[in-house]
Write a structure and sequence with these properties.
448 residues, little secondary structure, Pectate Lyase C-like, two-stranded antiparallel ribbon, 2 helices, 6% helix, globular
Length: 448
């Protein structure tokens, strides 16, 4: 005889008021400091929605199954916190510390995790269980999906070494996130934005990356067994073609070979020179965006105002080359020789110049003639210069917001009046570099 199946038990949450929460947080602070009267915060299955926990220290607290929907958690310390199956939908987690937090089965749909730190956090699937009246374990209904980060905002978040297998992360803004060595096996990141993300060493086995934007992303040393990259945008991404051999790249946007140019490169360069000399009346502007031109000798060539967006110029010789006013966002210039090259007024936003020779590079402003004279600065926002040689480079008035100069040699480089907001100079050699008038707010590692 078959009985009627028992319904899944509903979760019953205990509502916590703001004054109660503040008292619990104060006792938890004492607990963390080993002070008399302290007590570890146990907010398991509590309703904390819409409350304010900004800058609170709830490290090692118990928040399993808690509702934190639309809760303010900005700058909060939630490191080592148990948040198994917690509801964090639309919560504000900006700059929150979630180091090694247990977020298995948590729902982060629509949450803002910009600049949050999730190093070694556990975001794998999980579900709360509760015995029914017959003693059988049943999944508890909670109006959420396990390990869900759909439509969340995670710009600049650090998820290094996080466990995210089977996570549901569709349509999520992961711009500039750090995902080094992350376990993303079987995770669904379809249609997410990973522009500028660092996935070095990530395991993407059986991961759904269909429609993902990878512009300027780092995909070195990744594992891509049976990975879906259908219709993914890989223009400007740093990756090894061998890593794609076991992935489904149907419809993916990949760099083009020069063979598909339809004409010889010499002819393109000659037509471009004519276009420049005639002021655009004859000849044709060089449209070389998204081509693989790695290792080519282009020394002394005039490519001023050329379109080189997302072009691969890795190991290329561009010494003394004119690239003034050129369009070069997302360009791969790793280990390229740009010594004495002229890039004044060029757009090198998110270009990767790691280990490049940029000695005596000319990247200062250029005067653009029109009805009035306009000073046009060089745009190098979020460019990567790690381990590059910029000895004697002119970067006056350049836009270098969030640029990476780690381990770079900057001896006698000129950064006068440049915008260096939030740039990283960790271990850079900045001896005798000129930073007069530069905007240095938020910079790291400078020795001046």
């Amino acid at each position: 005889m078959t009985g009627r199946p028992a319904e899944n038990p509903q979760i019953k949450l205990r509502r916590i008021t703001q004054p109660e929460l503040e008292k619990i947080a104060a006792l938890h602070e004492k607990f963390l400091g080993s002070k008399p009267g302290g007590a570890r915060a146990n907010l398991t299955l509590c309703d904390l929605s819409l409350l304010n926990l900004n800058r609170c220290n709830l490290s090692h607290a118990e928040l399993n199954g808690a509702s934190l929907r639309k809760t303010q958690l900005q700058g909060c310390n939630l490191s080592f916190t148990n948040m198994f199956a917690a509801d964090l939908r639309e919560a504000c987690l900006v700059s929150t510390n979630l180091l090694r937090a247990d977020l298995r089965g948590a729902c982060l749909r629509g949450a803002d995790l910009s600049d949050a730190m999730l190093l070694e956090a556990d975001l794998r699937e999980g579900v709360l269980l509760k015995p029914d009246k017959h003693g059988n374990l049943k999944a508890m209904e909670y109006d959420m999906r396990s390990s869900e980060l759909a439509q969340a905002k995670m710009v600049g978040a650090d998820l290094s070494h996080a466990k995210m297998s089977n996570a549901f992360i569709v349509q999520t803004d992961l711009t500039d996130t750090v995902l080094r060595n992350v376990k993303l096996m079987r995770a669904d990141l379809s249609n997410s934005n990973l522009t500028g993300a660092n996935l070095d060493g990530a395991d993407l086995t059986e991961c759904n990356l269909s429609g993902v934007i990878f512009r300027g992303a780092i995909l070195t040393a990744v594992t891509m067994n049976q990975t879906k990259l259908n219709d993914a945008d890989l223009f400007g991404a740093i990756f090894d073609f061998a890593s794609l051999s076991r992935a489904d790249i149907t419809g993916a946007k990949l760099p083009r070979s020069l063979e598909s140019l339809g004409t010889e490169l010499k002819a393109v360069l000659a037509a471009h020179q004519q276009w420049i000399d005639s002021g655009g009346k004859i000849g044709q502007r060089a449209m070389l965006c998204r081509f693989d031109m790695s290792g080519l000798d282009l020394s002394g060539v005039n490519l001023a105002a050329a379109d080189l967006e997302a072009t691969i110029l890795r190991d290329a010789d561009l010494s003394s080359c004119s690239l003034m006013m050129a369009q070069m966002p997302f360009c791969d210039l790793r280990r390229a020789n740009l010594s004495s090259a002229d890039v004044r007024g060029a757009n090198l936003q998110r270009a990767n110049m790691s280990e490049a020779n940029l000695i005596n590079l000319r990247a200062g402003p250029v005067n653009v003639l029109g009805a009035t004279v306009q000073v046009w600065g060089t745009n190098m926002e979020r460019a990567r210069f790690s381990k590059a040689k910029l000895v004697g480079a002119n970067l006056r008035k350049a836009t270098l917001i969030h640029s990476d100069f780690r381990d770079a040699k900057l001896t006698e480089a000129d950064f006068q009046d440049a915008n260096l907001t939030d740039a990283d100079f960790t271990h850079a050699d900045d001896r005798r570099a000129n930073f007069a008038g530069a905007d240095l707010r938020g910079t790291r590692g400078l020795n001046i």
